[in-house]
């Protein structure tokens, strides 16, 4: 099992869309990857566009049998993920 990590910036909003998409597409091209961890340890702010990007990413990953989990979410970021019921879509650790 091969896991790759994707570092999410302190401010996760639409301004990060292009970079986020390019990074996860590059990781998904590696056929040896079975799991991707979104590293939320630095995230202090995320908005609805970030949640939308994560849902899209999760669907693409799932279609390639790649599991996605969220690692290191703190305080407000973790609270937002829980309010949005993202614990149903992602393993949050």
Summed up:
This protein has 93 residues and is an alpha/beta fold. It has helices at 17-28, 48-63, 75-83; strands spanning 2-7, 11-12, 33-39, 45-46, 67-71, 91-92.
What does this structure look like?
This protein is α/β, with parallel strands linked by helices and 93 residues long. The protein is built from 3 helices and 6 strands. The strands form 2 sheets. It has a 4-stranded parallel beta sheet with strand order 1-3-5-6, with helices on one face. It has a two-stranded parallel sheet with strand order 2-4. β5, α3 and β6 form a beta-alpha-beta unit. α1 runs parallel beside α2. The longest helix is centred in the middle third of the chain and has 16 residues. 19% of the residues are buried. The mean pLDDT is 96.
Key structural traits:
93 residues; alpha/beta; two-stranded parallel sheet; 40% helix
Annotation field: number of helices: 3
What general form does the structure show?
A: globular
Q: Biggest sheet, in brief?
A: 4 strands, parallel
Query: Overall pLDDT, averaged?
Result: 96
Bin the helical content. Answer: 25-40%
Give the DSSP E fraction (strand runs of 2 or more residues).
25-35%
How is the quaternary structure best described?
single chain
Task: Name the helix and strand elements from N-terminus to C-terminus, one letter apiece.
Answer: EEHEEHEHE
Terminal CA distance: 18 Å
Flag low-confidence runs: none
Major beta sheet, strand line-up: 1-3-5-6
> Structural class per helix/strand content?
alpha/beta
Radius of gyration, taken over Cα atoms and rounded to an integer in Å: 12 Å
Number of strands: 6
């Amino acid at each position: 099992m091969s896991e790759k990590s994707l570092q999410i910036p302190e401010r996760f909003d639409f301004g990060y869309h292009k970079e986020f998409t390019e990074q996860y597409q590059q990781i998904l091209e590696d056929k040896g990857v079975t799991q991707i961890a979104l590293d939320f340890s630095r995230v202090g702010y995320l908005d609805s566009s970030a949640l939308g990007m994560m849902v899209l990413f999760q669907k693409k990953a799932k279609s390639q049998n790649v599991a996605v989990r969220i690692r290191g979410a703190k305080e407000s970021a973790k609270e937002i993920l829980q309010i949005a019921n993202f614990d149903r879509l992602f393993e949050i650790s």
